[in-house]
Design a protein that fits this description.
mainly beta, five-stranded mixed β-sheet, 17 strands
């Protein structure tokens, strides 16, 4: 048994006039999603219970987990791990500034059991490499260390951090990010800053999945900025001529494209990436 990953050669441009460079970007190959009915059927076969009994137990367990997790409990998922509520929020200096508007996202945090982590660590990874024409040029069976990310290790007590509903551990925000490369391309006559936890993020930085990245753009007068992550538009909010927005780092090498200013009402249509 092995996990399948594909490495696709893509051209990445850092600005409109740049010829761009080709890089192999890895991402997991997605399998067909198993339906609840299929999972219940397989579980019934393995347990000797009828599908009706298994479905009733499945539904009841789901309701218990949902109710307790939303009350702030860390809930055990038998044989898998625990699930609990968390959030990401900005930090403020003064107590009078504390408000729910500081919360950027609510999260569901799953912490696997050691057995599940060991199973994943011992599973090999098969990488299939595709060149820019879509042809397979190489296949690799990984020999990596099998390190499994600790979901508890991504939590911080400050801006961009998350806290569990109960029993949550925390860790300082000074730890070095390990994970996926973020390529940043900017264009236009304005200026932009990209930060995480108040620290500058530059092109090529490695970030964890779900790391909260903040964007601040000051466009030239009369212009409107745009920002996309992997081609998806990032919502920007304007305040006194400054546009701000944020996104959670995807679980793969990603491209952030920022146009710091286009004339309002015009349709540039160019996000800085080669679509070929």
């Amino acid at each position: 048994m092995a996990l399948k990953v594909k490495a696709v050669e893509r051209k990445i441009k850092f600005n409109k006039n740049d010829e761009g460079v080709y890089r192999y970007v890895m991402q997991p190959e997605l399998y067909i999603a198993l339906t609840q009915a299929k999972v219940i059927k397989e579980a019934a076969l393995r347990s000797g219970c009828s599908q009706g009994v298994m479905k009733a137990c499945w539904d009841a367990a789901g309701e218990v987990i949902k109710a307790w997790a939303t009350e702030g409990h860390s809930v055990a998922l038998p044989g898998l791990g625990t699930m609990r509520f968390g959030l990401r929020a900005k930090s403020v200096e003064k107590v009078e500034d504390v408000k729910t508007a500081l919360i950027s996202t609510r999260r569901i945090i799953f912490t696997p059991t050691q057995d599940l982590k060991d199973e994943l660590a011992n599973t090999s990874i098969q990488i299939t490499c595709y060149d820019r024409n879509g042809d397979i040029v190489k296949r690799v069976t990984s020999a990596d260390a099998g390190t499994v990310e600790d979901p508890e290790g991504d939590e911080t007590g400050g801006e961009g951090g998350s806290h569990g509903g109960s029993g949550g551990s925390s860790q300082g925000s000074s730890q070095t990010p390990q994970g996926y490369a973020l390529t940043i391309a900017t264009s236009g006559s304005g200026s932009a800053s990209i930060t995480k936890d108040g620290n500058a993020v530059t092109s090529g930085s490695n970030l964890n999945e779900d790391d909260e990245v903040e964007i601040s753009i000051t466009p030239a007068a009369g212009q409107v900025p745009t920002a996309t992550i992997n081609g998806s538009q990032i919502e920007l909010t304007e305040n006194d001529g400054v546009y701000t927005g944020n996104f959670a780092m995807p679980g793969q090498a990603s491209s952030l494209v920022i146009n710091t200013g286009t004339v309002s009402g015009s349709d540039d249509g160019d996000d800085g990436l080669d679509k070929d």
